[in-house]
Amino acid sequence: MASLSFTSQIGGKDASWLQCRPLGFGRCAERVRFRVFASESPTHPDLSVTVNGLRMPNPFVIGSGPPGTNYTVMKKAFDEGWGAVIAKTVSLDASKVINVTPRYARLRAGANGSAKGQIIGWENIELISDRPLETMLKEFKQLKEEYPDRVLIASIMEEYDKAAWEELIDRVEQTGIDAIEINFSCPHGMPERKMGAAVGQDCALLEEVCGWINAKATVPVWAKMTPNITDITQPARVALRSGCEGISAINTIMSVMGINLNTLRPEPCVEGYSTPGGYSCKAVHPIALAKVMSIAQMMKAEFRDKDYSLSGIGGVETGGDAAEFILLGANTVQVCTGVMMHGYGHVKKLCSELQDFMKMQNFSSIEDFRGISLEYFTTHTDLVRRQQEAIRQRKAVRKGLQSDKEWTGDGFVNETESMVSN
Ligand SMILES: Cc1cc2nc3c(=O)[nH]c(=O)nc-3n(C[C@H](O)[C@H](O)[C@H](O)COP(=O)(O)O)c2cc1C
């Protein structure tokens, strides 16, 4: 067996780390036994991933939004080295999409009223693409012709109308895109047309629409989830059971950025008025981690044997932010606001920071550490039990055994230690 010959290679080193540890969704021994030892770790850990059959040079994906809004910027993303690009969400009739300006408002940490603090939160009231579908499709086709080996994903959204969804899927697929992400999660605008989060928040509607989509689509389909729901695992489960190959989470969080204390008007302020928008950037990262953790636990428990994927989104600005999503089970990590703040070249920094993390931990591939932190989440009741047990054991170590009747089976080694003098 490979593991045995490898064990003999490392000779007298402690081989306890070769034991089966849960990796990815319950996959363990196969990859662990090939993990290389610290001194032998490759200088450049492998960042490539294969997700639903799509090979990407790294797990960093442009999230749907302004960074994927036209040919020029998507080309730039490929040239700078992004693992994949998800285009701005398109629908059949862009003339119904009417944007306003200003449409963004930002939150700064420690700004104290000045404009110098670090940007940590970003609200937008931007709708989906307002460019004609024909134009977007032409650009998808051109990109796929110029970058046949790179992964281009179309993001789509439509009204509650089977024929409209079928037409949209057919037309985007004809451009040669590699996969489709369904925007079931846009928090603002067009709920009256039963679009975006209006579907993602209603599991019955979602099941029906996912059924139409998956009966039609011939490429992998990712369902993008809204965090503006009590239990995000419910729509995620429905989407997977209805045939979607992957889950993306999260879209933006419903928010009101603030009220201007001079004008008494809310921000972003359009002709004196505003409307709640979607919150993104660093401030949403902990919330996104919690949502991705819940989805990953559900997928591990209910879909573990299948080739489903998970894409983590929310507040990624560093390789460490991405590593956290992967440690929870994400296959890929999307970045949207981070690109708007740092530009397309930021992917190089993200890759090198992720590789630094992998080197530090002796991981040679993404699959080496995907999902391994998931097992450290438990219930509060279990935390109490674990802490009481730890305190009991620490006390036993401190005081030593008072009488032979105190020996226990489970704590035997610690109890022995408590009475050793050196
Ligand atoms: C200005 C802006 C526009 C966005 N437009 C879309 C969109 O068209 N479709 C979509 O699925 N998500 C859209 N998003 C959501 C992002 O793809 C992402 O889910 C969210 O912003 C959280 O990630 P981030 O913190 O990296 O931005 C948009 C986000 C922003 C900031």
UniProtKB/TrEMBL annotation:
Identify a single GO molecular function assigned to this protein.
Answer: dihydropyrimidine dehydrogenase (NADP+) activity
Q: Which residues form the Dihydroorotate dehydrogenase catalytic domain?
A: 47-358
**Alphabetically, which GO biological process terms does the record hold?**
beta-alanine biosynthetic process; thymine catabolic process; uracil catabolic process
Pathway, per Swiss-Prot/TrEMBL?
Amino-acid biosynthesis; beta-alanine biosynthesis
Q: Which Pfam families match?
A: DHO_dh
Of the GO CC terms on this record, one is: cytoplasm
Q: Give the E.C. number(s).
A: 1.3.1.2
Which key words are in the record? Oxidoreductase
Task: Output the InterPro entries linked to this UniProt entry.
Answer: Aldolase_TIM, Dihydroorotate_DH_cat
Query: Protein name, please?
Result: dihydropyrimidine dehydrogenase (NADP(+))
Recorded source organism is Camellia sinensis var. sinensis (China tea)
